[in-house]
Amino acid sequence: SSLSQWVHACDALELKPQDREQLDAFIDQLYKDIEAATGEFLNCEGSGLFVLQSCCNHSCVPNAETSFPENNFLLHVTALEDIKPGEEICISYLDCCQRERSRHSRHKILRENYLFVCSCPKCLAEADEPNVTSEEEEEEEEEEGEPEDAELGDEMTDV
């Protein structure tokens, strides 16, 4: 993106240590301000429309992934497993850490950022699991042995 090119150009400048610290602090603040304004969904420095990728739906167990391996604005879609003729090509809109979270946490992220509720094979298989976020699950594991009388409400409704 033009912003990352500008930051790289700034890195190449020969500056006094104090000026370097001020510039680095300014750049750090700029990135924080961008993230505060756009949130996680738009946590990127550029955008583009890629015809093949736009045909790929989301799955929490994707059979393909996207990347920019040569850093030249050319998007690659790579199969993660054999894909049969006629089988849908699915990528994940979640990063690898988010895909390991509970179904409820994944749904919450997808709903907030992409406005849909996932019905991939992984989510369907986990449909009977409690509607708690990954953080709530971790708290429950830490509090093992304590009675579970608090009811957990579902934070999501169907679209």
TrEMBL record:
Keyword Membrane: no
UniProt organism field: Mustela putorius furo (European domestic ferret)
Cross-referenced Pfam families: SET
GO BP: methylation; regulation of stem cell differentiation; transposable element silencing by heterochromatin formation
SUBUNIT field: Interacts with the N-CoR complex. Interacts with EHMT2 and CBX5.
UniProt key word Methyltransferase: yes
Protein name per the record: Protein-lysine N-trimethyltransferase SMYD5
Residues covered by the SET domain: 1-94
Top-rank EC class of the record's enzyme: transferase
SUPFAM superfamilies (UniProt xref): SET domain
MF-aspect GO terms: histone H3K36 trimethyltransferase activity; histone H4K20 trimethyltransferase activity; zinc ion binding
Principal location class: cytoplasm
Superkingdom of origin organism: Eukaryota
Gene3D superfamilies to which the protein is assigned, alphabetical: SET domain, Tetratricopeptide repeat domain
Matches recorded under InterPro entries: SET_dom (IPR001214), SET_dom_sf (IPR046341), TPR-like_helical_dom_sf (IPR011990)
Region annotation (Disordered) ranges: 127-159
Reactions catalysed according to its record: L-lysyl(20)-[histone H4] + 3 S-adenosyl-L-methionine = N(6),N(6),N(6)-trimethyl-L-lysyl(20)-[histone H4] + 3 S-adenosyl-L-homocysteine + 3 H(+); L-lysyl(36)-[histone H3] + 3 S-adenosyl-L-methionine = N(6),N(6),N(6)-trimethyl-L-lysyl(36)-[histone H3] + 3 S-adenosyl-L-homocysteine + 3 H(+); L-lysyl-[protein] + 3 S-adenosyl-L-methionine = N(6),N(6),N(6)-trimethyl-L-lysyl-[protein] + 3 S-adenosyl-L-homocysteine + 3 H(+)
E.C. number: 2.1.1.359, 2.1.1.372
Localization per Swiss-Prot or TrEMBL: Cytoplasm
